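Technical note accompanying the year-one report. For the benefit of new consortium partners, we illustrate the data format agreed upon in the data management plan: each record pairs a sequence with a structure-token string. No post-processing was applied to the example shown here.
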Amino acid sequence: MTSLVLIILGMFMLTASPAWTEDRAMEKQIDAAFAAGDLPGLHGVLVLHKGEILAERYYEGPDENWGRPIGVRMLDKNSLHDLRSVTKSIVSLLYGIALGEGKVPGLDESVIAQFPEYADLQNDPERRKITIRDTLAMTMGTDWNENLPYTDPRNSEIAMEMAADRYRYVLDRPMVHEPGARWTYNGGATALIGHLIARGTGMPLDDYAREKLFKPLGIEDFEWARGADGVPSAASGLRLNIHDLAKIGRMMIDKGNWNGMQVVPAEWVVEATTPQATPEAGIRYGLFWWLAGEGEPPYWAAGFGNGGQRLMFGARNDLVVAVFAGRYNDPEAWRVPVKVILNFVLPNIRNQ
């Protein structure tokens, strides 16, 4: 995603006050763009302002379930859909809940210290410097490469899935930077965090999510893909419907509160959406959440997922945008949700 697009998006989120047309013009515009082939692979869009539905559209197209083709299907509001790496942002919330319960280590504790079974790795003084915060911020300093297609066994996440011990694989990568100094996209970091949640709570990750996050939000139907070792994939395995995904954005705007219940500690919502790193000009990164390049707090926060999945929310405008798409492993997939937001959502907002 270009820095220019992100900066423009941040500016809109800063300056605009939503005032929406009543004829659902946005839906007609999105329909026309999809019919014209300008939004290839789009599966679904849901736009909320102050909890009100401003646009909701679904389309037919080929889809997958965690890399497995499931044919052409027409989505509706109840259809489960891959979130892919938006899953990481959900795992961040689960860590915050578990931390509030005192069941997982604090952000400044060493991550390798939580894995005493790998005593040999703990002998490396540089590796011992990697903190839980570094892990959640993807600034571990270890070698990791997810720039290759996810069909390529050399892709670090795929190699992790194929490894006999995924956690050792992640922790044993060569040190190439000082921990905390440089951001590198790392699905293995999420696997470590998911494991700490499961071990600390004594529950599989999906069961903990069901009890502590989904049930309070009224989310009843979900799937969580498991790796060959039977463990739910913390990096990319969650499937939700688009309304339930949008609930999470709505809850984040309310600092973790849902209908008067504090589901996620408010302090964690702030911490998770506080910039920790700058992957590129115009965009920042928190604790498994992507953040606008401008604003304190950032003008928007988002979960991004392979294929064009998005959950974006802006507290300033009380705006939530959820997008599903099926352009998996396409390096240009980001263009679909960005077009939806820049070409249709934002132009339907006028300054007041």
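Partners are asked to follow this layout when depositing records. The radius of gyration is 19 Å.
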